[in-house]
Amino acid sequence: MRILIILLLTACCLGPVRAQNNLHGSWYAFMRNHIVEFKFSGDTLFSRALDWDLQPVSVRPGSVVKNVVQQTDTAGGRVYASLINNEKRSRSFAVFEFSKSGNLMIFISSKKRERWDTTTLLGFAHSDTLNRIGLYFMSSKEIERFSKLRPLDSMTSRDIVEYANRYAVLKRQLDDLDNSGKRPASGQLVLLAFYTYRLLFAEVGYNPMVPDEAIVRLFRKFKKNRETRDLVKSMDLYD
After folding, report:
1. In terms of CB atoms within 10 Å, which end of the chain has fewer, N or C?
2. pLDDT at position 15 over 50
3. SS3 labels along the chain
């Protein structure tokens, strides 16, 4: 099982960050068909894929990726870390940012380096000016809050209209990003879209942690409703 590297761009998920180096607990982000969990335990970062009921997608050997956090440094409101995967005998570099609301952005470099010693880490951390923007991982508390929201299949016509209005705003933001000089790879942009569209369900009061099939059924239901049919079709989601 491969955990996706989070290197996505969005202007709508950003907020001021505060410096922290106390990385602990579990953090979650929505992918296309599952949830990714990053769990800090001592000096180790575990990652795995979960179903929407938070059960592991797989329990086979290798389904949990384990990285040892060798060393960290804090600069500019970010935590920088050198990671070692002993099973794959590889090293990588990570940047962690906390939003004002308490969510966590995790960026893991796709470029493996043979060496991230203390001098290299400190030098990079204190000269880093890159404005990383991307998917924020949510805390266990936020995931628990989502699970207590109303069931998605109980969504009303009024709420689907509110969802569509929020979708229109979000789509303009994504279109602007797509046309900007910071455009991410197409696959990353698609993943970002599905991530943020799911969060819109929570914004209007419904549990977004459901399989894609449940969302497809929801949109099909409103496509059969004369009052909402054209609006839902205009969103062009989950066809």
Report:
1. C
2. no
3. CCCCCCCCCCCCCCCCECCCCCCCEEEEEECCCCEEEEEEECCEEEEEEECCCCCECCCCCCCCEEEEEEEEEEECCEEEEEEEECCCCEEEEEEEEEECCCCEEEEECCCCCCCCCHHHHHHHHCCCCCCCCCCEEEEHHHHHHHHCCECHHHCCHHHHHHHHHHHHHHHHHHHHHHCCCCCCCHHHHHHHHHHHHHHHHHHCCECCCCCHHHHHHHHHHHHCCCCCHHHHHHHCCCC
Both tokens of 34, joined, read 């599952």
pTM: 0.75
Amino acid at 229: R
| Residue owning tokens 């769990």 | 39
Q: How confident is the model at residue 2 (pLDDT cuts 50, 70, 90)?
A: very low
Return phi, psi of residue 12, to 5°.
-85, -15
Whether 85 and 94 have beta carbons less than 8 Å apart is answered as: no
Q: pLDDT (tens digit, 9 = 90+) per residue, 166-219?
A: 988 888 877 776 565 555 444 555 566 677 888 899 999 999 999 989 999 999
What are the Cα distances from residue 238, in Å, to 47, 82, 95, 210, 227? Answer: 28, 39, 33, 13, 19
> How high is the pLDDT of residue 163?
94
For residue 65, is pLDDT > 80?
yes
- Look-up: residue for tokens 């797509």? 178
